[in-house]
Amino acid sequence: MFDFSHFLTDSYAVALAAVMLAAMIYLCLYYGLYHFRVGRWGLKKEGQVPQGDLPPVSVVLTARNDAAWLKENLVYLLEQDYPDFEVVVVNYLSTDDTEFVLKLLKDYYPHLKVVPFKEDVNLFQGKKYPLSIGIKSAKNDILMLADPDCTPKNLLWLKGMVRGYREQGTQVVLGYCGVKRTKTLLGMLQQYDSLAYGAQYLGSALLGHPYTGSGRNLSYRRSFFFSQGAFISHYDVADGSDDLFVYQNATRKNTAVCIDSDACLTAEPRKRFYQWHDERRHRVATRNRHSFWGRLHESLPAWMNVVFYAAAVLLLLRGTLPWVAVAAAAVLKWAWQIVCFSRLTKRFEGGYIHFAAPLFEIYFIIANTILILLPLPNNRKFKK
Questions:
Q1: CA torsion sign, 347 to 187 to 145 to 373?
Q2: Which residues pair with 59 in a beta bridge?
Q3: Cα 193 from Cα 173, distance rounded (Å)
């Protein structure tokens, strides 16, 4: 029915087909090992920490002009169903109602500790100095880090994250913070980005190679933080309070992943594209501090996608391989990608966004390339 005789005599087309097939196999393995595996992975019930053995915990947040978020979300952290915990909020140079909101909440919640900054004494860049002061002010060894715009799914977040310390020797626990579902295109792009990025760093940790985490839902021991030198080695970089600290200190033996439903947080999607774009630029601003192999590991899926689509287009232009064969390869890749991504959306309540995964993936190949080529300047005094 289809004539492959010209294709078999065209060595250039055969090479292109081999390259496309190799890229497709790599991507299918990637979707299975990262998207599908993270979506299916779960903690064993027998590994949960008994109620009587729950260790004391300190939740640490940094805030600057976040009165609206604190008014809406902080009560969910203060009301956690946990026997012994405190919430430490560093109020860094806020000029809105943040101070008033924190004072009001402190009257009702004695386990809220506020660390105020009236003057700009940050000799470094970014939020690492205020965060370090918040960590130093914490009284408990197990720290839970979040942002003012993050909301726990229920009042069991602390119990959920503490389960990550069930194995002796655990120093770092990686969590997940998703984006609340919306029906807008910008909201869906943020959902996809959060899911895909989370699957990559969580999947790497599950495979024994933790390389980064999200400061929106991250935990580590206070003693470990200071024993590893805190942020001293990268104080000169505005970003990376989560990325660089995890990259430099997390290992297969000391890192756990905790993504059961109780342990996850959600954040409101940004309403303006430039706000979300700026957040994403912050996220990639520290990648030049990663090793060559680390950067290759992070960017290889995108490069394999470029190779796959480029080879497919060249084969179609060449014309010696029937177009049905190229289309079949693309459809198989897309179908497996949708199946694997559907596990993520089901686990993290992402709706039906997996049906658009192939299209969104192409968008982010282009968008992330632009982010890397246009890094943020390193002159920011504070980054949320």
A1: positive
A2: 87, 144
A3: 21
Let me know: does 349 contact 264? Beta carbons within 8 Å: no
In whole angstroms, give the CA distance from residue 139 to residue 112. Answer: 12
Q: Using alpha carbons only, give the angle 229, 152, 356 rounded to the nearest 5 degrees.
A: 100
Output the six-digit token pair for 81.
């169903």
Could you give the strand order of the β-sheet that contains 150-152, starting from the edge strand earlier in sequence?
Answer: 150-152, 265-267, 177-179
Q: What is the pLDDT along the chain (384 residues), one digit of tens a residue?
A: 565 656 666 788 889 999 999 999 999 999 999 999 999 997 454 445 555 689 999 999 999 999 999 999 999 999 999 999 999 999 998 999 999 999 999 999 999 999 998 877 666 677 899 999 999 999 999 999 999 999 999 999 999 999 999 999 999 999 999 999 998 999 999 999 999 999 999 999 999 999 999 999 999 999 999 999 999 888 888 888 999 999 999 999 999 999 998 999 999 999 999 889 888 888 888 888 888 888 888 999 999 999 999 999 999 998 888 888 899 999 999 999 999 999 999 999 888 999 999 999 999 999 888 877 765 554 455 555
What own/partner pairs with CB < 8 Å and gap ≥ 24 does 224-227 have?
224/171, 224/172, 224/249, 224/254, 225/135, 225/143
- Please identify which residue in the block is written with the tokens 């660390």: 115
Show contacts of 96-101: CB within 8 Å, 24+ apart: 96/65, 96/66, 96/67, 97/67, 98/63, 98/64, 98/65, 98/66, 98/67, 98/70, 100/67, 101/67, 101/70, 101/71, 101/74
Joined together, the tokens standing for residue 166 give 């069930």
pTM value is: 0.91
CATH 3.90.550.10 fits 48-276, yes or no: yes
Residue entry with tokens 């940004």: 270
